[in-house]
Design goal:
The protein is α+β, with helices and mostly antiparallel strands. It has 4 helices and 16 strands. The strands form 3 sheets. A 6-stranded antiparallel beta sheet has the order 2-1-11-10-7-8, with no helix packed on it. A hairpin with a 2-residue loop joins β5 and β6. α1 packs antiparallel against α2. The model has no long low-confidence stretch (mean pLDDT 82).
């Protein structure tokens, strides 16, 4: 007997033994192997058993089935063939294959890599610089828990806000585009990040007018560099 391994984000591979004469695969919950993803049809494909052999074929004229990267109408499967149905990846494997158990740290590392990969794909699909910067800032705000953030570039030697967003992934109105110029200028000057946990009681910045007026609780300011040159900063802030 053989099995299908289905790979889903943030989960270990799911195992589906092929014990039926006909095994259906698709996004419909009634399928023998239910999968969801981009371009996956309700009844996408079928695996047919003939003795010890298995064949795969699409069930929908708009459904694509790839075996080892090659589009097929019907294909005989061999152990460790990689199947691709829409955005879903599977492997045809012997039922004797035992999957190793991953430790909590390995699962966490895999989840982080998958999150990074998904973010990089969204960044590539953003289309233009402003959309990419907004996406970068939104993801950073979500991860950090800060209440608002800015991407600031230096233009004609003047720090200029290019993107200003809040934690709800919305653009800040002009009257809320407020940040500590002292902290920004400090990070731009030496190209080193600033992490200020309690700005009002911080020895370096507590006397700064912007810190006092904004009643800043915490600030993270990270230089954005290219080829050793500081182009601007990523600024995250939380107010009291």
């Amino acid at each position: 007997m053989a099995q299908i391994l289905v790979f889903r984000p943030n989960e270990p591979p799911a195992q589906y033994p092929l014990f039926r004469a006909n095994t259906t695969i698709g996004s419909d919950e009634g399928c023998d192997i239910p999968v969801s993803g981009a371009q996956v049809r309700p009844l996408h494909a079928e695996i047919v058993s003939e003795g010890n052999l298995h064949h795969i074929m699409p069930l929908d004229r708009d459904a694509e089935v790839l075996v080892n990267g090659r589009k097929v109408k019907k294909a005989s499967l061999e152990h460790y063939d990689v199947l691709r149905l829409g955005s879903v990846t599977m492997v045809y494997a012997p039922d004797s294959l035992e999957l190793p158990r991953r430790s909590a740290s390995e699962v966490s590392a895999m989840n982080q890599l998958e999150t990074l990969y998904a973010f990089s794909r969204r960044l590539m699909d953003a289309g233009d610089l402003n959309k990419a910067l907004a996406l970068l800032l939104d993801e950073t705000l979500t991860l950090s828990g800060a209440s608002k953030g800015f991407i600031i570039f230096v233009e004609n030697n003047v720090p200029t806000v290019k993107v200003a967003r809040n934690v709800d992934r919305k653009e800040l109105p002009p009257d809320e585009v407020l940040f500590s110029e002292s902290i920004v200028l400090s990070a731009l000057k030496d190209g080193q990040p600033r992490l200020v946990v309690d700005a009002l009681n911080n020895k370096e910045f507590r006397a700064c007018t912007s810190v006092i007026n904004l009643r800043l609780a915490s600030v993270m300011c990270v230089p954005l560099k290219s080829g050793g040159e500081t182009l601007g900063v990523l600024y995250l802030g939380t107010e009291r």
